[in-house]
Amino acid sequence: MNAPSPQIWFITGSQHLYGPEALKQVSANAAAVAHGLNDALDANIAFKPIVTTPEEIRKVCQEASSDDTCAGIITWMHTFSPAKMWISGLTALSKPICHLHTQFNRDIPWAEIDMDFMNLNQSAHGGREYGHMLTRLRIPRKVIVGHWEDEQVRADLGAWCAVATAWQEMRALRVVRFGDNMRYVAVTDGDKVEAERVFGMSVNTHGIGDLVAVMDGQSDTRVDQLCAEYADLYDLMPALHKGGERHASLRDAARIELGLEQFLREGGYGAFTDTFEDLHGMKQLPGIAAQRLMAKGFGFGGEGDWKHAALVRVMKVMSGNILESQTSFMEDYTYHFDPAGARCLGAHMLEICPSISGHKPRCEIHPLGIGGKEDPVRLVFDAATGPAINASLVDLGNRFRLLVNQVESVPMPKPMPKLPVARVLWDAKPDLQKAAAAWIHAGGAHHTGFSLKVSVEQMESLAEMAGIECVTIDESTDLRSFKQDLRLGEVYYGVRGI
Ligand code: MN
Questions:
Q1: pLDDT in tens, 286-312
Q2: Which of 71, 106, 246, 264 is least enclosed, having the fewest CB within 10 Å?
Q3: Of all helices (H) and strands (E), which one includes residue 480?
Q4: Cα–Cα nearest to 283, from 351, 379, 375
């Protein structure tokens, strides 16, 4: 699944009060900032001519809205730019906004500063006039403050550009479900029509037979080639090697992967779900196939969970590097209630993305215990360690909520030789007791998108772009105020009608 690379437009506001010479300088400075950011960031930042009238502002906002290659706009007020000029444009804009509150010079030129300099460099108050209008129009946006050459400013801008790119991806995302939701399960289900209205993504189902037909059409040569690739990339169990007693199962797994990938690519699908309750015509539940397709950038959700399949795909785009996204489908599995520090073991029956692995994965075959099919082949590994997040998208009946928990992936204290699945052990912030209680109060799912790359701030930006609530659980979470935030959210998002 290719990494999308749309443009982010760089739009600079000014006005005609200061004369043509000043505007020439504004334009040159704006171009220098835009090009400097484009060179420094892993984003495609396009300089647009400065805007100085309501007509110019409306035109560029309309163009940004209708241009599919534009994922969002960065706006900067180099001088004062009276904000009534922006009303018509901003109300026509349908793309995310980042307000870069910067100025061309980093320092005040103490010895040379005069009124010409003051006229030219008015971001400090120009940005407030502009910000007032965005607030008055109730338009959510990211505000980044600091000099444009500052490392933190650039990091924040780059992170926001990746979110805008991911949001653009979500607007057009196609999710395919093989089989329905796991019987009786609540949180993985939801309103797919409302999801398309709010997020743009479409979610549709194919009977498993449609997929099986594509799997059966894969040539033995391609199956052999993929088995050789498995042997090259992973530590294969001896029985799975060519000539080994379980090699036929590896070939079945490879056939499933080839069929799934062809089906997804031909259908233009960026994410998929399956369920162990509907595998008619398949020999085994997709294990290594789902894992490797996730590593290629596809979103996945188990048991028909289309919301987290979509979220995993979107978070992979948000990571900024689709093939090294360190982002996976995840499930809170079992706890370690050690008084010295409680931990949660995250895993799934099979489907954890190897992009989060801390080492070369092992390729193994073991019984599944449910589904009544043959033993599935899977990749087994311990996750890499470091700061991470778990994110969950839930349907509350009248609206969606995004829930994010800051966690720390920590080393396994002991080996688990009998556990045949990929796993991650995390220390939830502020601690497991408060984090799990808050998560449960917020109605979060047992499924999540887990990422070692995507930040809490990025998830907040995504929720703002979608116009939905984002609830975060981190080091500063206090349960009493957290519950109060949930109550306030019911009112605020209820009033907004989202
Ligand atoms: Mn599950």
A1: 999 999 999 999 999 999 999 999 999
A2: 106
A3: helix 479-496
A4: 375
CA of 361 to the centre of ligand 1 (A): 21
**Residue 96, CB half-sphere, CA atoms under 13 Å: how many?**
30
| Nearest Cα residue to 257 out of 224, 226, 283 | 226
Q: Of 114, 139, 129, nearest to 79 (Cα)?
A: 129
Helix (H, G, I), strand (E, B) or coil at 466: helix
Q: pTM of the full predicted structure?
A: 0.97
Alpha carbon of 401 to ligand 1 centroid (Å): 19
Q: Is 69 helix (H, G, I), strand (E, B) or coil?
A: coil
The CA 312 to ligand 1 mean position distance, Å, reads 14
Which residue is associated with the tokens 């989202």?
Answer: 498
Query: Would you say 351 and 377 are in contact if contact means Cβ atoms under 8 Å apart?
Result: no
Helix (H) / strand (E) containing 97: strand 97-101
Distance in angstroms (rounded) separating the CA atoms of residues 82 and 13: 9
Residue 246, beta-bridge partner list: none
Report the run of H or E that residue 131 belongs to, with start and end: helix 123-136
DSSP string, 14-81: --GGG-HHHHHHHHHHHHHHHHHHHHHSSSEEEE---B-SHHHHHHHHHHHHH-TTEEEEEEEESS--
Instruction: Categorize the per-residue pLDDT at 3 as very low, low, confident or very high, splitting at 50, 70 and 90.
Output: low
